[in-house]
Amino acid sequence: METEIYWKAVRNNDARFNGAFVYAVNSTKIYCKPSCSSRLPKRENVSFFEDFERAEREGFRACRRCQPKNETIGEQTKTVLRVCELLETEENISLEDLSAELNLSAAHLQKMFKEIIGVSPKKFAEIKRLEKFKAEIKSGGGVTDAMYEAGFNSSSRLYENVSEKLGMTPKTYAKKGKNMKINYTVTDCDLGKLLVARTAKGVCSVAFGDDENVLKENLFAEYRNAAIIEESTNLKEYIEAILLNLEGKNKTLDLPLDLQATAFQMRVWEVLRKIPYGETVSYADVAESLGNKNAVRAVATACASNHVALVIPCHRVIGKNGNLSGYRWGIERKKRILENEKR
Ligand SMILES: [Zn+2]
Fold it and tell me: How many A from CA of 27 to the centre of ligand 1?
């Protein structure tokens, strides 16, 4: 439902939207059609309904002035609202695709859309992507993943858009780790230094590195709004399980997790957790099992943004031709983990 478009139509008494929806005013319990000339209500008192029956079921009465019942939506408005819907749900749909879908010439569609909505279909899609991006970031996801989920193609374009529209960079916008309490410890293992961190709910970071200080810095940067302290007592059990896993003695690493992630990352990570010990799949396989074989790059990004090495076994995802591709904690470690697992 296009509430902003609807609200704009109400503000403009736009009769072209009569029949597309009615708006109901909570303070007066009356509903109107978009073109009603009664005084403009406050935005926070207004709700929209796609038909008048629904407004009545919610206890609103028809306005006597504008008689909002039984309006029929105009063909053009109907088409344009359908375009809005397609632009929102179909990622990166082109004007040509739209015109084919709706059996209209691209030029005609473009003109009609701009006339009724006020911006071009391209601009509208861009605005929608930004909104989606903002919502993803607010829900705690990483910038890159939010970017893929919102359908942006390249990060440069994203930054252009965001700094222009939000007045700040995506990193300023994210509030990672806010209200979280984390404790962590660093220990030695066969692959160098191992950092494990947890919240009250579960493990939030498992990372390998060469330098203890770098590992700490990364943790603090990743959850920079969290309260973080070094404390190992309630991590012993987890560390033991992880070290045993590295030695090949504990093949299922089923630790409780507390991860901040976007819906898409979560879906990818769920798939990764199902890859059995000692086996590998390709990024394309993961994309396909998510029902979107074109999402290979987004899958690779989600793997690269894994916070918990081994627990979410992103090391078991490799390139289609068998090359190891990347690993957040170093390709050499990925190689050694996989060799250990195959033994
Ligand atoms: Zn009215």
Answer: 14
Number of residues assigned to the chain: 343
pLDDT tens digit sequence for 275-287? 889 889 999 899 8
pLDDT greater than 50 at residue 80: yes
70 in any annotated domain: no
Q: Which of 190, 211, 246 is the last residue of a domain?
A: 246
**Do residues 248 and 270 make contact, with C-beta atoms less than 8 angstroms apart?**
no
pLDDT in tens, 221-272: 888 778 899 998 899 999 999 999 999 888 888 888 887 766 677 778 888 9
- Residue of 19, 173, 5 lying closest to 87 (CA atoms): 5
Give the model confidence (pLDDT) of 5-59 as tens digits.
Answer: 999 999 999 999 999 999 999 999 999 999 999 999 999 999 999 899 999 999 9
| Residues flanking ion ligand 1, Cβ below 5 Å | 32, 36, 38, 63, 65-66
What is the distance in A from the centroid of ligand 1 to the CA of 35?
Answer: 8
The phi and psi torsions of 298 (rounded to 5 degrees) equal: -65, -35
Please say which residue of 133, 151, 174 terminates a domain: 174
Residues with a catalytic annotation lie at: 32, 314
Distance from Cα 16 to the centre of ligand 1, integer Å: 15
Give me the CATH number covering residue 308.
1.10.10.10
Q: Identify whether the C-beta of residue 32 lies closer than 8 Å to the C-beta of residue 22.
A: yes
Considering the domain architecture, whether residues 159 and 187 belong to the same structural domain is answered as no
Q: How far away, in angstroms, is 32 Cα from ligand 1 center? A: 4
What domain range includes position 55? 3-62
Integer Cα distance of 221 and 214 in angstroms: 10
